[in-house]
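Let's do one together. I've listed all components of the complex below, 857 residues spread over three lines.
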Amino acid sequence: MRTLLSLDGLTALRGECPVVDNVSVSIGAGECVGLIGPNGAGKTTLMRAALGLLPAKGASSLTALSPSERARAVAWLPQARDIAWPMTVETVVALGRIPHLPRGTKLRTEDQAAVDAALAEMDLTDFADRLANQLSGGEQARVLIARALAQQTPLLMVDEPIAGLDPAHQIGTMESFAALAAEGKSVIVSLHDLGLAARHCTRILMLSQGRLIADGSPAEVLTPERLNTVFGIRVFYENTAQGPIFQPTEVTR
Amino acid sequence: MRLSKLISAAALALVAGAAAYGETPQKVVSMNVCTDQLAMLLAGEGQLHSLSALAVDPRISGMVEEARAFHINSARAEEIYLMKPDLVLAGTYTARASVEMLERLGLRVVRFAPANSLADVPLRLREMGAVLGREARAAELVAAFEAGLARLKANAPEQLPRALSYAANGYTSGAHTLPDEMIVAAGFINVASEFGIDYGGRMPLELLAMSAPDLVMSSTPYAGASRAEEVPQHPVVRAVTGGAPPVSMVSRDWSCGTPLVLRAIDELAAKRKALFP
Amino acid sequence: MMRLLFLLGALVAMLFAASLAIGPAEATFAKSLSSLLTDDGTPFTLVMREIRLPRALLAVMIGASLGLAGAAMQGYLRNPLAEPGLIGVSSSAALGAVLSLQTGFAAAFALALPLSALAAALVGVLLVLLLAGPRGASMTLILAGIAISAMAGALISLVLNLSPNPYAANEIVFWMMGSLADRSMLHVFLALPVMALGWVLLGTLGRGLDALTLGEDAASSMGINLSRLRMALVVGVSCVVGAGTAVAGAIGFVGLVVPHILRPFVGGRPSRLLWASALGGAALVLAADIAVRLIMPDRDLKLGVVMALIGAPLFLHLIFKTRKELS
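Okay, and this is what the predicted structure of the assembly comes out as:
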């Protein structure tokens, strides 16, 4: 199986303090990976360090690539949802094709096809000509996810993409990621909604204080002891006819 | 023309009358570079005490060597008052605040207008002579000047070449100015007056190019740089006279109406003879 | 987009022709053009080739440069208020030019003058980027711009007043407001090499600026080399602003007005805005230069006056819009 991301002893320091502490993990094709952890656990820092966006010790397979190769290997959707200028939705999504376009920025047929597919996947075809910065926060989030999809990379790294989306689009987005995994691509998505992670991710990485303390299927990782220690919560977690139901019920500390 | 002659004569009478009222001044201070030079030409032994700072500036003053013998003042009221002069000479364009301050302090100040024509030169000489009590000396200089001028006029050519003075910012001297009369006296037509420029004014580069002068005159630039002085350096100015650079005329003999203008006119006439035989 | 470029190009061509036809020397338009192209022996050819042609050429070159630089800076800082005039780069360039002229350095070798202005503009851009921070927040940017403009202006005034040349002291207006009067082909050739370098550098920025719309992280992850982008921006802006200011003084507001007006027509895309702003800037400066010659033909009305009349209301509108967005 092809390895799309390999981290070996990745450590990122802020001053003396390790924000990401000696993380080693290997992600292959066809995985939908949920990256979870309490606030400040280092999820965003881990992803940025893996991408080479901040200095880190240890090895990351992505930083070994040249910037243009990396842009075609992984698409990164940061948490800050910036759209600086008044552009149409379609134009924003088409920005995802930049790594594939040679110098001149004109879209070819395959680029236009990728854009159209991404718009359809995120349910934005009707919005194509609307100005992106006049949409609601949730709609803008979908536009930016579509941009990452249009980049058509084997690996997708997404930082808290579903915050602020309505339930239908939360589920729809997670289903899109799961579908990508079924096609043979991989997605690493950091999120706080442990229920959605349990239902749609094939693999969970749990971070606490910069350390990777659990790596496995949702059932293996989301044990009551760990949820108590790391998150300080008690949960109701059961497999039902509608699939796994996961609901945090109370705070333990 | 008639009216201005009348006014000049009246001014002369007034000044002479004022001079007659008082005694001959013994300690004279001059605040203006033109009155500096007139005073130096006419003053008696020990009569002139101080001159303005421009009197020793070789660009502006035609009598720099002579001026070194005198005290230099910066044309400020306080400095001049402390010299306790019995007569102060100023130009009509000298800083009004300073001049009025001196008058308020009780000093006698006589103002001299700048010369706007060749006819003003003997007039100013006589005015200064009257004020300093040196009428005889003034008469001598006037006679010499008029003789010199007559000699020049006798040498006027038939075919008059066309000249233009072009200074910083495209400034030129048109009709009714001293430089205009000097150019004519040297045996040229002043192109600026052809274009209807009266007194001093700005001539756009395009009009200069269209006017096809035979000779362009400019003053040598100051140290440092300025955009104003780049204008006479524009390639068009050189191109318009067929590649010859502007003739450099030093300001000092052109700026004040003293008999030294004859020197400038002589120089210009010599240039004319050399270039247009 | 092609239609927009075509329209703007046609506008520039028309204004260029009009600029050639206006001046104190009277002639029909046909005669102007024929005198320009063929040497008909009359002095009018001199007027056309040595006076009007350099003036029109400089207007196009400087206008295109300022439009391009404004669009590039706005794209990089993601801030519609960023433009070389407003943030003090033009004044810094003017200071460099004045210093080199007054110290005599400008006469040392052929391109000494525009290179001095370039060096000073570099310092100005770097200072602004340093002070404004990575996101170019409005408040900090404007304050940085005011500080640098004020400092540069004061120093220009000081240097000119200390000059041994009595005319220099009165020329601060030219340096701070700009003028294309009485320029020659020498000035065109003086400005062209450094400006052309700047055009090339700024022209490479399109792709990166497009990607920057999504933020620095996203752009970096899409393969854009941000430090090289910044370097190209800094040097490119300094080149075009330095060369232009060295020969025509500091002209403001072009880089602010033109991208703002043209942005809706290019769909907000920074890469397209670069070229549209270059053409738009050329058109604006040509139009302003024509206006100063029509409004006050005898006096040397400064370009900056017309620019300020256009730019200040727009600037106010932008400030109010920004306030509304922030609140």
